[in-house]
Write a structure and sequence with these properties.
Helices cover 33% and strands 26% of the residues. The chain has helices at 15-47, 59-88, 216-227, and strands at 95-102, 105-110, 117-120, 142-145, 149-156, 161-165, 170-174, 180-185, 190-196, 208-214. The strands form 2 sheets. The protein has a 5-stranded mixed β-sheet with strand order 3-2-1-5-8, with no helix packed on it. It has a 5-stranded mixed β-sheet with strand order 4-10-9-6-7, with helices on one face. The protein starts with 14 loop residues before the first helix and ends with a helix. Its cofactor is Cu cation.
Length: 229
């Protein structure tokens, strides 16, 4: 989860998020180099003692400032396209979960299990247990097995919502009457927090998301207990 004064992304908990972090660092280096070069040119122009300069023809400079941006764009675009294709790949998911946005809570349906359906409401501040996070904790976690491909089907019941979990590299719009899908693999056990990322009304900030990644045996025990309720 995020912490105060955090400047970068959250720690990656899925292979896709790891790719996004590497791409972020890659692009940031290009930004730093370009900014340094521009600052150097501006400083040189401001501090030069030459008072009468006249460049009639500078084909070499024109070649440089045309070819260099093209190379930079290619170096940035190729990894970006690779990640986009990786994010769209959905091959043999072990589990399919349907998340439906409501004003203002989420409901989950595990399509592989007939009776595994539940709502997930934010726990009010006055009911929080010691150590719980305000505005982030919910009564029912969306529990999934770790190291397993999970397919998410995301929709909404009333207005636009957005199902977003930064640590897993997921942000997918929930649109009424439309079913969007995405996939993720939780690479380690833990609790991963998210929130609705589309302004959906007065209580938009009070419909958090909690994904709990557990070993397969624990997931089977949890699913059995939920279906027996």
């Amino acid at each position: 989860m995020a912490h105060p004064s955090q400047l970068g992304f959250q720690d990656a908990a899925s292979p896709i998020m790891e790719e996004l972090l590497h791409f972020h660092d890659h692009v940031l280096m290009a930004v730093f180099m370009i900014s340094t070069l521009v600052l150097y040119i501006i400083t040189t122009m401001m501090t030069t003692k030459l008072t009468n300069t006249n460049a009639v023809d500078a084909q070499e400079i024109e070649m440089v400032w045309t070819v260099m941006p093209a190379i930079i764009l290619i170096v940035i675009a190729l990894p970006s396209l690779r990640i986009l294709y990786l994010m769209d790949e959905i091959n043999d998911p072990h589990l399919t979960v349907k998340a439906i946005g409501h004003q203002w809570y989420w409901s989950y349906e595990f399509t592989n299990y007939e009776d595994l359906t539940f709502d997930s409401y934010m726990i009010p501040t006055q009911e929080l247990m010691l150590g719980h996070s305000r505005l982030l904790e919910v009564d029912n976690h969306m529990t999934v097995p770790m190291e397993s491909p999970i397919r998410m089907l995301i929709s909404a019941e009333d207005v636009l919502h957005s199902w977003a979990v930064p640590s897993l590299g997921i942000k997918t719009d929930a649109i009424p009457g439309r079913l969007n899908q995405t996939t993720f693999i939780a690479s380690r056990p833990g609790l991963f927090y998210g929130q609705c990322s589309e302004i959906c009304g007065a209580n938009h900030s009070f419909m958090p998301i909690v994904v709990e990644s557990v070993p397969l045996n624990n997931f089977q025990s949890w699913s059995s207990s939920m279906m027996n309720l």
